[in-house]
Structures are given as C-alpha cells and as structure tokens.
C-alpha cells in the first residue's frame, strides 16, 4: 500500500522533485528503506505460499479433502452478490 502511494505521489510531482536538489538525499533514503521493506514482504509472501502448498499436499495425502478449488464463473456472473436492502 505504501509503495503504491509513494509511486503515485512521485509520478504526480515528478517535475517538482527533479527540479529540487534538496530532495535528493530524502529520496535516496526513501528508496533504500522502501527496497528493504519490499524484500521483507517478498520473503514473507514466499514463505506463506510455500506453507500453503505444504498444507495442501499433507491434507491431500491424508485424504482429508484438501482445499476446495474455486469454481469457474459463468459468463456475466459476479463473484460476490450482495442482497438487496429494502
């Protein structure tokens, strides 16, 4: 979320940022900290995906049913339908 916000702010104000030499050190420190946090998030996501794959294999081997796969949607069908509130 933070990455998306920073990216859009930088795109909008790119001309002002490039014109200001005072912002250069701030941008460098921001880039360093942002990359470090993205690496951490990427590792966490990888661990979560690997863990889910392991659980799926274990449940399938034990015959406990495993995960239910999503059913493909019919053409024009919505994934979630909310009831009409009168």
Structural descriptors:
86 residues, mainly alpha, flat
Give the topology:
Blueprint: H1 2-12, H2 14-19, H3 24-62
- What is the mean pLDDT? 79
Structure summary, number of beta strands = 0
> Strand-residue fraction?
under 5%
Shape: flat
In short:
With 86 residues, this protein is mostly helical. 65% of the residues lie in helices and 0% in strands.
Tell me about this structure:
- The chain has 86 residues and is mostly helical.
- The chain has a domain at 14-60.
- The protein is built from 3 helices and no strands.
- It has helices spanning 2-12, 14-19, 24-62.
- 0% of the residues are buried.
